[in-house]
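Summary of Year 1 activities. Much of the first year was spent building the evaluation harness for sequence design. The harness presents a backbone, in tokenized form, and records the residue chosen at every position. We chose the following record to illustrate the format because it has been used consistently in internal testing since the harness was completed.
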């Protein structure tokens, strides 16, 4: 299968590594900066790369695209690749508005191609294990408490490069947690609240936010988010269950006392990005809709839309 990866930033590189570890994938790298494009292609031994989007849109040998591009481009690019007959895995968030998400859903239905959204938390082995335990009735969740902390007072990427678009705590980072909570509980929310700090004069978005959700059966989600944090960066997920507490950070899991939790080896043979990209590839091969398809994610986008209104009023 030939897959285009659009983008050369840190997330694009994680997708490259995942596909190379999966194997049997012909990667075509697409970027806008020729120098950076060549640098990334050389680093990963990618022979085919281009700065010409139209060329790859028209290439009938390209089956699919992974869009690791700036958030404001996701809607337009997703629709363009769908209309060119390609399957799409779009990085989170698929849109930074409910209207944009709806446009993607409509394009997917019109073209009959898959659109999967890179909600990688669904695929990290510890989160997969937690889901299995909940489904089997071995764990009963009371509260999912999440911290997502970065230091981003300047408009720079994870690689420290200046960029011309702005990341967003709600539409990007909280989207992971809102979707994960809905995915793990399989319940809609009945109550929600959100608060945000002042907007940064430098990058134009709030640098601090917290949100809360109560599900139908009164399970709770609490998310603390900051771009003002000093110290270790990233996201920490604490599952507080009747049977115990479990702390998850990407592909690692410990209990509430920081003791390692052993999970089945069949889950740990791949990391979250690999499991996610395998699901995208297998869904194409099997002619089915993938886990984390755009229509599955749409209810979470509706929640983000409501939270944005609450936080700004």
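For this record, the design step produced the sequence shown next.
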């Amino acid at each position: 299968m030939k897959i285009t990866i659009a983008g050369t930033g840190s997330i694009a590189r994680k997708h490259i590594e995942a596909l190379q570890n999966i194997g049997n994938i012909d990667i075509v790298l697409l970027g806008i900066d020729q120098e950076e494009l060549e640098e990334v292609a050389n680093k990963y031994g990618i022979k085919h790369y281009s700065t010409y989007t139209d060329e790859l849109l028209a290439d009938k040998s390209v089956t699919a695209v992974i869009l690791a591009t700036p958030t404001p481009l996701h809607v337009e690019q997703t629709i363009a690749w769908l209309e060119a007959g390609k399957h799409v895995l779009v990085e989170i968030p698929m849109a930074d508005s409910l209207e944009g998400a709806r446009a993607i859903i409509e394009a997917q239905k019109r073209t009959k191609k898959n659109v999967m959204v890179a909600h990688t938390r669904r695929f990290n082995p510890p989160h997969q294990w937690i889901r299995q335990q909940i489904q089997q009735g071995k764990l009963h969740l009371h509260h999912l408490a999440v911290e997502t902390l970065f230091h981003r007072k300047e408009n720079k990427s994870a690689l420290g490069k200046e960029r011309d678009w702005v990341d967003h705590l709600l539409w990007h980072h909280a989207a992971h947690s809102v979707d994960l909570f809905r995915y793990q509980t399989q319940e809609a929310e009945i109550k929600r609240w959100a608060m945000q700090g002042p907007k940064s004069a430098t990058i134009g978005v709030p640098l601090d936010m917290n949100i809360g959700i109560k599900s139908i059966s009164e399970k709770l989600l609490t998310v603390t988010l900051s771009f003002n944090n000093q110290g270790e960066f990233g996201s920490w997920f604490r599952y507080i269950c009747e049977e115990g507490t479990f702390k998850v950070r990407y592909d690692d899991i410990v209990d509430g006392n920081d003791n390692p939790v052993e999970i089945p080896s069949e889950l740990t043979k791949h990391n979250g990005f690999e499991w996610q990209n395998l699901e995208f590839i297998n869904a194409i091969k099997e002619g089915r809709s993938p886990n984390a398809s755009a229509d599955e994610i749409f209810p979470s986008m509706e929640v983000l839309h409501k939270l944005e209104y609450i936080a700004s009023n």
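The radius of gyration is 19 Å. Quantitative recovery figures across the full test set are reported in Table 2.
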